[in-house]
Amino acid sequence: MKNLLIVVIITFFSLNTASFAQEGGSLNSGTISSQFDYINSISNNYQEFKVIKKSNLDKLRKNVTDSLNVFKEEIANISIDLKQKQDQIAKMEAQIEEVQDQLQKAEEARDSFAFLGMPIHKSAYSSLMWTIVFGLLGAFLFFLYQYSQSHKVISKARKDLEETREEFDQHRKNTLERERKLKRELVDALNQKTI
C-alpha cells in the first residue's frame, strides 16, 4: 500500500510540473467553484480516486476558509444593519403611532370646544343651536298667530265699539231732540197758560 502511494505521488508530481504556473494563478483568483473545477482537472486519477497535491488542497482550504470568513463578516454586517433597520422601523412605528394620537387629539379639539364651561362636540352644538332656532321660530310663529287672532278680535271689538258709539250718539241725538221737543212743548204749554 505504501508503495502504491509513493507511485501515485511520484506520478502526480511528474504530471503536474508542466502545469505548475497555471496552478498558482487559477487557485489565486476566480470563484470557489472554478477553483474546485481547476483542482478536479489537474488532479491525477488513481483507480476511482483523485489524487490532489497537499499544497493545492491547503491553498483551496485557505481560499474556502477566507471566503467563509468574508461571508460570515458580511452576514454579521448584514445582521447588524438589519437590527439597525428594525430598530429604525420600530422607532418610526412609535412615531407614527404618536403622530396618529396627536392627529386624533387635534381632530377632537377641532371638532369640539367649551360651551358654557362644558366641552361639547361641534355636531352636538350645531344640533342644539338648530333646535333652539327651530324652537324660537315655532314660538315666533305661534305668537304671530296669536297676535293675528288677537288683532282680529281687537279689530272686531273696535268695529263693534264704533258701531255702539254711533248707535249711542244716534240715540243721544234722538233723546236730545225728544227732550228739546218736550221742552218746547212745555214752554209752549206754559206760554199758552200764561196768556
TrEMBL record:
Instruction: List UniProt keywords, sorted A-Z.
Output: Coiled coil, Membrane, Signal, Transmembrane, Transmembrane helix
Residues in the signal sequence: 1-21
Q: Which domain of life is it from?
A: Bacteria
Transmembrane feature ranges: 128-148
Q: Which residues form a coiled coil?
A: 68-112, 154-193
Q: Identify this protein by name.
A: tRNA (Guanine-N1)-methyltransferase
